[in-house]
Fold these 3 entries.
Entry 1:
Amino acid sequence: DIQMTQSPSSLSASVGDRVTITCRASQGIGNYLAWYQQKPGKVPNLLIYAASTLQSGVPSRFSGSGSGTDFTLIISSLQPEDVATYYCQRYNSAPRTFGPGTKVEIK
Amino acid sequence: EMQLVESGGGLVQPGGSLRLSCAASGFIFSSYEMNWVRQAPGKGLEWVSYINSGGNKKYYADSVEGRLTISRDNAKNSLYLQMNNLRAEDTAVYYCAKDSGSGATPFDIWGQGTMVTVSS
């Protein structure tokens, strides 16, 4: 099965900072990559799909890029409401594996 | 408003069984593929199972294959997860999640989750 990894596992940044999270697939998955945000105690929320397409209603400070095996989620200017764990997920075929998550905190 | 509401969670002894349900509303349930995703306490998301819109194609994570069975009743707008021979490591919040479209698509709608605790 294709494995998904993320780095870093956690990060602490200041409000207004640019934050970069990477996701790597053990085999090529084209652009079948989604990013989810899960705020503490809440349900996961779809942020980005097809590696770079912003889901409706998601702030434009979020962006995604990549294809094949290497993907990136960028928060251009970190806001207090962005405190959450971010997960990547491949959805091209089963198993639709999630990455282990990246916990984002405010410094 | 599209909505998913899970039910059926609870405390069960190791080796026991439980049936989870997910009631869908606000969209044409029979047109969408559905999934179960779980999250153990303090841990990450784990995809568990998938079922296509017609209910005749199903996939499972290796960790649950042979013990958990996904099914759906399109007439009742409901998704199910029959859980047998439960283990302590099955303890988690179980979410049902809707595919955003047909084919290979991400999960755009999630339920609030139902907690399953496997313990003696």
Note: The interface with chain A takes residues 35, 37, 44-47, 50, 59-62, 95, 100, 104-108, 110-113 of chain B (CB under 8 Å).
Entry 2:
Amino acid sequence: AQKVTQAQTEISVVEKEDVTLDCVYETRDTTYYLFWYKQPPSGELVFLIRRNSFDEQNEISGRYSWNFQKSTSSFNFTITASQVVDSAVYFCALSEASGQNFVFGPGTRLSVLP
Amino acid sequence: ETGVTQSPTHLIKTRGQQVTLRCSSQSGHNTVSWYQQALGQGPQFIFQYYREEENGRGNFPPRFSGLQFPNYSSELNVNALELDDSALYLCASSPTGQGAYEQYFGPGTRLTVT
């Protein structure tokens, strides 16, 4: 069975600090996809990134970066120079290759204080 | 481009009643998935519809059922409501059921069962 663990329930940082959100996954599939979503207080989930299991290159998008390490089954998310608007719950998710079953982690609540 | 919309926004029902939630997919998307998100938890996959047929199902009882229409809009029906059904119900659309593409989420319907 697929499983996603986000060990950090809540994180608080001061604005401009860097913060890393951890994600560890379990799957028996050789082909799978990993995702990160952001859920701001408004409640609507916002897609951030999709990564397939064959692409272990790290990715950077502005202040966001992702570190995918297949050897440790981890897909961590770093926000550089955090801002108050980054405050939200962040979910890591795993999907089998067919896309039929998304498994979300429990989420990490990030609070960025001014 | 119109995003994913859901109706109603909020709903209060009594235990034992039936409820229908509605979702309009993002333009050009033919796949819709439904999720249940209990307070403080990650979304749990209910089922997915692709081209009007169920294309995968999570660990939910048969009293959770769905429909997808030719215009790709969708309904989630829940019979014999239980108190534990109180949650945020999220609909997500994606461009195709063939592959794990990113999903675009609606704002959700908050269901309260009393």
Note: Chain A has no helices and twelve strands.
Entry 3:
Amino acid sequence: DAGVIQSPRHEVTEMGQEVTLRCKPISGHNSLFWYRQTMMRGLELLIYFNNNVPIDDSGMPEDRFSAKMPNASFSTLKIQPSEPRDSAVYFCASSLNSGGVGEQFFGPGTRLTVL
Amino acid sequence: GEDVEQSLFLSVREGDSSVINCTYTDSSSTYLYWYKQEPGAGLQLLTYIFSNMDMKQDQRLTVLLNKKDKHLSLRIADTQTGDSAIYFCAESRDDKIIFGKGTRLHILP
């Protein structure tokens, strides 16, 4: 398996533009997580899905952020409009939620820079 | 509080042991984890311990769990340059994992 796939790996955009980050979880995993990592705040959970359904979006910073999971193999995180303070590394992770260890497998991340 | 707490930095000489400490919050957490993040990469599970265990050893890694004090530690024996990374302590909570801010391990020659 290729692991969790994220695209793009790097994104540079200007303030006010729309940004869409993409994630393909590991096949067969039924939970998907979006995180944001910055030096100041560390790793923050933004939102997670179980079986394509959003379960907890309390970490989403504000209405400018939205996430979707239209099917088991694809999720997007959208920022509209983007602001410089959104600059961070965004990680997608997936896991098999079956009552076991619950290991999360992380993608390589998308480094977002908003100018 | 609700945070998993760990120190932000640790410097260790090559060949010495590294000990990274963490305090967690939820006494009902089933699993406690240590994740490793190398530069430019995502987090990767390094080891975990079930909450009814006190210790787990895996080659150079030793995890100690003190449930009474909600204290978790990771010891890396014979620290090598390849161990340079950020180490995240984490606890299971419902169907989420709550991560600390990470400890950046720096290896001195």
Note: Residues 60 and 104 of chain B are 18 Å apart (CA to CA).
